[in-house]
Amino acid sequence: RSGFINPYWLINEVSNADNSQWFMGNITLNFKINKMLSLRARAATDIQSKGAWRFDNYYSPFDVDGYYEEAKENRFNNNFDGLLNFNHKIKKISLGANVGASLQHIESDRILSQVNTLLVPDIKSLSNNAGIMKSLPGYWAKEKQSLFGAANFGYDNWLYIDGTTRSEWSSTLPIKNNSYNYWSLGSSIVITEMLKLKSKVLSFAKVRASYALVGNDTDFDRLFNGYSYGGLFLGNMVYYRSDATRMNSSIKPEQTRSGELGLDLRLFDGRITVDATYYNKISYNQIMTVDIAKQSGYNNKIYNTGEVRNWGLELSTTLVPVKTKNWMWESTFNWAMNRSLIVSLAEGINRFEIGNIEGDACRLYLEEGKPYGVLYGKDYRRNEAGQILVNNNGKPLFDLDKYLGAVEPDFIGGWRNKVRFKDFDFGFTIDYKKGGILFSRTSLRGGIDGQTIQSLRGRDEFFFSSLILGENDAERNGFLEAQYTVLPNANYAESSVLYPDGSRPKGILFDAVYAPEVAYWAGEQNMAWLRPDNMWQHDGVASSEYIYNASFIKLREVNFGYTVPNKWLKRTPFTQARVSAVGRNVAILLQYTPKGIDPEATSSVGNAQGLEKGYALPSATWGFDLKLSF
Q1: Buried b (16+ CB within 10 A) or exposed e, 41-62
Q2: Is residue 65 a contact partner of residue 58, using CB atoms and an 8 Å limit?
Q3: At 607, phi and psi to the nearest 5?
Q4: d(CA 209, CA 194)
Q5: Tens of pLDDT along 240-273?
Q6: Considering only Cβ atoms within 10 Å of each terminal Cβ, which end of the chain, N or C, has fewer?
Q7: Do β-strands 14-32 and 37-56 pair in parallel, antiparallel, or remain unpaired?
Q8: Count of CB atoms within 10 A of residue 608's CB?
Q9: Confidence of residue 618 (pLDDT cuts 50, 70, 90)
Q10: Which of 483, 474, 490, 489 is nearest to 529 (CA)?
Q11: What sign has the CA pseudo-torsion 89, 90, 93, 97?
Q12: Which stretch of DSSP H or E encloses residue 48?
């Protein structure tokens, strides 16, 4: 079908590779000024050098004259900071404070060279060029300067108060708005110490509370629109505006206010521990790209959006059911629930798009009054009873902008177990997620190209009806042929009679009724058998056919290890040695997505969640770890 590419061609005639070198290092100097003061100075660097190439051979169905490219990139991340610390204790009171400054400079240079027409097939080289080679430079940089400080107070090992402050200046923000502040205030009370409790049941109890303001900058080059060189015209150099996004030289830094309450408990000398946290966060002035009217000359614009609220609960419980000299079993349960709400967006906008799949097939929005990330797409038009409405040929009618659901899960969590017997240990981790939805482009394309089990629906029945029995379209469309109607050879409006034979399928039959505009059948039960290819083509299928419940249970990790006894290491330079076998992403124990589509699949590590576009197949990794300590 249209859009299908032979996988053998992709395996043998399309290729790519990359390589990278990575160096990381740091130097730290510590100075002890006196008993109360100390100074730390630190410099760190992260240097990466990358190279990559991509080759599409001659006669590729998507590029018949071939393509080759090479890219090289050098990236530097340098950090410098200094910190002056003060610590002092006066009887039951402990005092601490620090002040410091930091500088971060990130820079990246990239060059991409492209050959858009190969001279001969099979040769992977920039010199294999039948046209004009293009070289596209790229540059990215950011610098942040910071001043910060913190203070803490403790009393009698049960009362603690902490405060922090930080100011940053970022090169990615406009000069008039390039600074923003952080600050936080928190306190905790150890109840068991305050009340001097000595209980075998309640070993430790602490309550805590905090409030914070956090700022954030944006990415490089989002303030001013630029121009690209477009060649010569009548001897003059021509430049054109290459950005589809309208930059914004007046953006403000993002800010988030958050509050948190927590409780820590330890029971039976630590055999049971409980950690509970409730949080509430409000973010505003978030910097996002918003669609605008194309009459403006741009597709979208960078805005400071309105207000987004997140709140939730996190629980963690650890149990130690068995603890002896030779045996130990530790089990930890985690559970977390987050709720979000788009309180407001940019002025005059109640929703905007942050991702899509094939245009109107499915779009991801932020929308006022709904959770963060909701999907809209084409869905079946239904009556008040929820039945699908069809036209006189039995084809379903559609609403083109239908709310399909939210990507936000109801809750997530995990279960980790560790068992030790003498020097051997075994452990496994299970992760789970309940709720949220996922739209799969892999399933969409598979249905369109007739490659999925889903697209088999009604196929054999249609071929039997049309090719073996020779039944015509009139019969499959749910009415008698004209010569057999009440008024022979009259038109539908005068003599349409529904075909009564529903005993044998002839394609796909919707549980539906005819739409009100089909005047002479309006409200009658649908009797038309739809052709399978009409069902799965772009204009015939609903986006909801490819919406899946993103819930899952996964066996995330399994490990088995052995710790070498210390007595075996006495004549070696090692103080500790451990060897283990580890498996990660071992199995998906429960999923509602089709086999081969990971329920955690995503097209973005950023905002555009809930959209799957050719995500890698679920895969497990197995290996061995050897840890040696000197």
Answers
A1: ebeeeeeeebeebbbbbbebee
A2: yes
A3: -80, -30
A4: 17
A5: 777 788 899 999 999 999 999 999 999 999 999 9
A6: C
A7: antiparallel
A8: 18
A9: confident
A10: 474
A11: negative
A12: strand 37-56
- Any bridge partners for residue 398, and if so which? 380
Asked whether 521 and 404 are in contact (CB, 8 A), the reply is no
Amino acid letter, residue 444: L
Contact 211, 261 (CB under 8 A): no
| pLDDT per position as a tens digit, 400-443 | 899 999 999 999 999 999 999 999 999 999 999 999 999 999 99
Measure Cα distances from 572 to 423, 424, 566, 576 in Å. Answer: 19, 21, 10, 10
Alpha-carbon span 507 to 532, nearest angstrom: 6
Cα–Cα distance measured from residue 600 to residue 466, given in angstroms and rounded to the nearest whole number = 42
Given a contact cutoff of 8 angstroms between Cβ atoms, the answer to whether 334 and 413 are in contact is yes
Strand pairing class (512-514; 388-390) = parallel
pTM, two decimals, is 0.82
What is the residue type of 532? P
- The residues near 112 (Cβ < 8 Å, ≥ 6 apart) are 69, 70, 71, 135, 136, 137, 138
CA atoms within 13 A on the CB side of 136: 8
Hey, what long-range contacts does 380-384 have (CB within 8 A, 24 or more apart)? Answer: 380/542, 380/544, 381/515, 383/513
Tokens of 312: 């939730």
CB burial of residue 200 (10 Å; 0-12, 13-18, 19+): exposed
Question: How far from 307 is each of 350, 376, 445, CA to CA, in Å?
Answer: 12, 22, 37
Tokens of 11: 């395996």
Element counts in the chain: helices (H) and strands (E): 7, 31
User: What are 129's two structure tokens?
Assistant: 């060029």
Euclidean distance between CA atoms 128 and 53, whole angstroms = 14
* Cα→Cα distances 346→150, 172, 303, 306, 355, Å: 35, 21, 7, 5, 18
